[in-house]
Design the sequence.
């Protein structure tokens, strides 16, 4: 049986699907009876999801213009 | 390709919005259902070859489309490395100039997207070094974070709670919808992201911000699968800790 400390260390391997079947079972049978570890699991997943949810900062219009100019310049040098 | 097999435990904590890899489009063909992955992938490859040909021929609408597709994610990634958005804009500009310079020689061994992001990562790293946002300091901070994390566990020889949490760990999937989306939480998250050691911030930004797969990130950053996972683990722990401080819900169990 894993300790909470081990769950803490293994959580990403678990979530990434890298634990061996036997380890995964041990992991799950610990978490199922351990509220703090379930909380921790939810926190790690919320962290991961929250990062992906952040809005992309506005792409500056001047930047787009200057990249397009770079493209046109590059194009003119191609011939 | 190694796919994430989402473990079944606590499936209710997972809301299907995952894996945001898909939100950026077609680079994860194995998950786009119906068509066989291989068909899908070769279709993608074909589309890429066409796109490449158009770009090389100087097709401006094609380039504008590419910029619209990749630009926002590139800018966001650059913001992780750069101290301000002006520097981030310079990194993105520099990336496109370098990409154009390399375009004729690009052999299409990786996807266009991976290629462009690799250039971005290199530009950004070079810039970060120039800016001397020194790695030693960040690593030190990260180390402090990890040390204080050890307070969260009873010692291994504790009579009753050996190696157990000293904290309750409130479930975050049960929080009010907007608890983690406050301005404060958002800026704490970005601040924590920026103070990570560069290798960690690169991995977590590509994986969790941009939704790239583990394989893509490994090839992009030249990491082994195991190494990538360790960096991701440490980085997520650090960001979680930053959010934890914002939520300030640490209560002692003892």
Sequence:
């Amino acid at each position: 049986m894993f300790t909470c400390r081990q769950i803490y260390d293994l959580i990403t391997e678990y979530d990434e699907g890298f634990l061996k079947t036997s380890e995964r079972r041990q992991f799950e049978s610990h978490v199922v009876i351990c509220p703090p570890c379930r909380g921790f699991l939810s926190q790690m997943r919320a962290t991961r999801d929250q990062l992906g949810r952040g809005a992309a900062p506005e792409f500056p219009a001047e930047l787009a213009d200057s990249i397009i100019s770079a493209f046109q310049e590059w194009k003119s040098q191609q011939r | 390709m190694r796919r994430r097999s989402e473990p079944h435990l606590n499936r209710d904590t997972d809301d299907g919005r995952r894996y945001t890899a898909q939100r950026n489009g077609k680079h994860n063909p194995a998950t786009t259902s119906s068509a066989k992955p291989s068909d899908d992938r070769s279709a993608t490859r074909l589309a890429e070859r066409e796109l490449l040909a158009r770009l090389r021929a100087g097709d401006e609408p094609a380039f504008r489309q590419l910029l619209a597709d990749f630009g926002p994610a590139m800018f966001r990634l650059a913001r992780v490395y750069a101290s301000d958005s002006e520097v981030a804009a310079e990194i993105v500009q520099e990336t496109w100039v370098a990409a154009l310079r390399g375009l004729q020689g690009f052999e299409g061994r990786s996807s266009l997207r991976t290629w462009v992001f690799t250039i971005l990562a290199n530009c950004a790293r070079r810039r970060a070094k120039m800016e001397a946002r020194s790695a030693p300091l960040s690593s030190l901070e990260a180390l402090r974070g990890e040390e204080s994390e050890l307070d969260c566990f009873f010692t291994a020889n504790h009579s009753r709670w050996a190696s157990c949490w000293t904290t309750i760990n409130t479930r975050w999937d049960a929080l009010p919808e907007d608890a983690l989306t406050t301005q404060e939480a958002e800026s704490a998250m970005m601040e924590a992201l920026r103070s990570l050691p560069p290798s960690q911030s690169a991995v977590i930004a590509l994986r969790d911000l941009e939704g790239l797969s583990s394989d893509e990130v490994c090839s992009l950053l030249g990491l082994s699968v195991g190494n990538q996972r360790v960096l991701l683990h440490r980085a997520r722990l650090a960001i979680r800790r930053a959010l934890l401080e914002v939520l300030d819900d640490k209560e002692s169990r003892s």
Chain B has nine helices and no strands. The CA atoms of residues 92 and 154 of chain B lie 47 Å apart.
